[in-house]
Amino acid sequence: MIVKKIFVFLQIALLSLSFGIFAVACDNGNEGDYDSGDILPVDNICYVLNNGNWGGNDASIQHYDISTGIATLGDSQNNIFVLQNGSLLGDLAQSMLWIGNKLFVAVGGSQKLEILDTQGKRLREYYSYSEIGATPRMITTDGNNVYVTNYDGNVYVYDAVTADYIRKISVGVRPEGISYYDGYLVVNNSGTLWAYDGTVSIISLESGEENTIPLVNPYTASVVCNGKIYIIDGGNYNDIPSDIYCISPREGIATPLGISASAIAAYNNTLYYVNNEWNYEINDNVASPLYALDVVTGEKREFLSASKMKNVNSLSVNPETGDIYIGYSTAYGVLGFMRIYDTNGVERGMFTAGYYPGGAYFKN
Asked: Domain limits at 98?
């Protein structure tokens, strides 16, 4: 991946290599052993996808039981994928989608898409050297099909039930984030290397018509909130700051909010965002508080202090409860943490994750 997105990924997920170890005082007794003979529950649970270390071939998948607060192990040798399949998941897992009884997992560094059952056992896999398996990035669904962005400039479409490949949709250069709403796909095309010539593709699945909006550097972040799609344009890391854009798919309009951010998540009418950017003057990461923005009223409030947002690697929301899952990186080769907060900002739990926890994933 010798492309502009190396820089983006390092900005968001791997710049913590310089942070040192993030010290946390807690009881780590909520991790549970698991072997391939155990049957994992599938009710009231989520999965945690850990990106892994850059070039480390140590991405992993964890199962987290919300009812008991027990997470399976997240290291690369003992996570549910390895124990079910007898092989490593791969290098730099990017994203996951849980739909029905299947998990779709994009492993970008290994250039493959894995389709698993809910126990983590492989059902299908698509590799980059095949006609239908270009390097996968981010994933969404309309309930029937699964849509996967790929660095070859296409969105690949799979049947959500059979996992069969259906077709591909040509979009822009190096597509990243993707969301679906109301018959439309919105795709973040991050653009060519260092040129900052990204675009957003808005595609009507009914007509096939595409509307393209020029931006600077739209990348992985893409969420649906109150009938609109919100993305992050990363700017150029110099004189053009990052900004959150509100995309109205049917109207084909992208409206900047004037808010710098590095990660976003959504629950009902609330858009959560944090700006966790690298500061070259002090050679360290500077984190903002986690803010909650009511997209209907425009009211903004500080949800968690900046001290709780240091070293954030991912931001996810449980769509049923509104609980916020925050993945923290520590240092290269050191396991991360996942902390859980309720809608009042009260911490509900914490468990050890894998290397660079990339997000909590819930059933669609």
From this structure: 4-361
When the pLDDT of each residue in the chain is averaged and rounded to a whole number, the result is 90
- Give SS3 for 350: strand
Instruction: Count the domains in the chain.
Output: 1
- Closest Cα partner for 249 from 202, 189, 200, 198? 202
In terms of Cα–Cα distance, which of 12, 1, 22, 6 is closest to 337? 22
CATH number of the domain encompassing residue 190: 2.130.10.10
Reduced to 3 states (helix: H, G, I; strand: E, B; else coil), residue 269 is coil
pLDDT-derived band at 279 (thresholds 50, 70, 90) equals: low
Tell me the pLDDT tens digit for each residue of 169-183: 999 999 999 999 999
Q: How many Å from the N-terminal Cα to the C-terminal Cα in the chain?
A: 29
- Which amino acid is located at 72 in the chain? T
Do residues 271 and 264 make contact, with C-beta atoms less than 8 angstroms apart?
A: yes
d(CA 57, CA 89): 8
For residues 345-356, one letter each, b for 16 or more C-beta atoms within 10 angstroms of the residue's C-beta and e for the rest, the string is eeeebbbbbbbb
Residues 79, 63: Cα–Cα separation, whole Å? 9
Residue 141 is classified by DSSP as: E
Residue with tokens 């946390």: 24
Residue 15 banded pLDDT, cuts 50, 70, 90: very low
Under 8 Å between Cβ of 137 and 94:
yes
Compute, in degrees rounded to 10, the torsion defined by CA atoms 207, 264, 236, 19.
Answer: -150
